[in-house]
Amino acid sequence: MRRRKLWLVLTLVIGLAIGGGAGYLVRVKLTASNKAKAEQQVKTKTVTKSSTPSKTYVKASAADTARIGQVVSYLSSNIGPRPAGKAGEKQAGSYLVTELEKIGYKVGMDQFPLPNGSTSQNLVTADPGQSSAYTFFICAHMDTVSGSPGANANASGCAALLEIARVVKGTKHYPEIRFLVFGAEEENSGGTARVGSTYYLGTQPQVERAKIIGVLSMDNIGVGPQITYRDWGPASPALADTLVAYTKAKGLQSARLQGRTSDHEPFGDSGIGAVWSERMTLAGKSDTEVGSSGDTPAHVFVNLVAESVNLTRDYLLSLDQTACKSMAAAKSAVPAPATKSSGGTGN
After folding, report:
1. How far apart are CA 274 and CA 278, in angstroms?
2. Hey, what CATH topology would domain 65-333 get?
């Protein structure tokens, strides 16, 4: 009996020992399995993270005077006068679309009616920024007054817009940069002007208008040593002052005046900071050939247009998050737009 009890006890002890050992081995195996699984998960996460490409940016290039000269010459010599709604303006629009597409942009062309029953068109494209909450507009107009080749007014502005679009494409800038070539900027026989830019702004919903932190119209920038910024509207003086200070810091002649007769006008009237960049003499005089038959390619200094391109490029690339927020806040703080009055010289 004693031996039998001893045998039962021994059997129980051995059984417990074997069970414990097996449990231990199972725990060890599970621990190793869990560890391996965890390591695999970490490895997978690491691979996934490293396999996601980060945004790459290109280095901004300098303005090309040869390109500028070609555009000015084609618009004012090959095409010539480009009155709104006429064949010359439509040909200019097609040409500019092709040139923007060569750079790599997708261009929208939006037709709109003119008071005389014909149609004109606006061209729109953009280079996206780091943020979609802010937009800065660069504008020019493709039309001329009747009978003028319009080399300075405004083939120079169109050439500058194309070059700015080229040198900033794919670069690192915080706001979206939107490029707009407007039709029917010049005053027509009915006394109406800025038809294209007014039409475009009228098609924009409030959420899009709210994103606009600045508008710069490039118009008559091929003659004269002084880069003048003409502001229009209650939100525009601050932008003009900033641009004057920025230009002077680059060692260039600059001044601020008031004026409305360019495509910044409807934006300024709506309470958006909008400025017209025009080159003038140091005495503040506009180009006397504007609107005449003498406004030919030989009259335009392509090096001055290139200077304006490089200046505008640097300014756009300087707009970081802090600057954009500050411009948006300043715009919001401006009172409701005042009634429009006359000012500035025509083009």
Report:
1. 13
2. Aminopeptidase (3.40.630)
Q: Cα(340)–Cα(347) distance, rounded to whole angstroms?
A: 18
> pTM above 0.70?
yes
pLDDT tens column, 64-90: 999 999 999 999 999 999 999 999 999
Per-residue pLDDT reduced to its tens digit, 232-262: 999 999 999 999 999 999 999 999 999 999 9
Residue 223 one-letter amino acid: V
In SS3 terms, the chain reads as CHHHHHHHHHHHHHHHHHHHHHHHHHHHHHHHHHHHHHHHHHHHHHHHHHHCCCCCCCCCCCCCHHHHHHHHHHHHHHHCCCCCCCHHHHHHHHHHHHHHHHHCCCCEEEEEECCCCCEEEEEEEEECCCCCCCEEEEEEECCCCCCCCCHHHHHHHHHHHHHHHHHHCCCCCCCEEEEEEECCCCCCCCCCCCHHHHHHHHHCCHHHHCCEEEEEEECCCCCCCEEEEEECCCCHHHHHHHHHHHHHHCCCCEEEEECCCCCCHHHHHCCCCEEEEEEECCCCCCCCCCCCCCCCHHHCCHHHHHHHHHHHHHHHHHCCHHHHHHHHHHHHHCCCCCCCCCCCCCC
Name the amino acid, one letter, at 290.
V
Q: Give the whole-angstrom CA distance, residue 135 versus residue 126.
A: 9
For the beta sheet containing 119-127, the strands, ordered from the edge strand earlier in sequence to the opposite edge, are 108-113, 119-127, 176-182, 135-141, 212-218, 274-280, 226-231, 254-258
Taking the alpha carbons at both ends of the chain, their separation in whole angstroms is 125
Distance, in Å, from the CA atom of 59 to the CA atom of 170, rounded to the nearest integer, reads 8
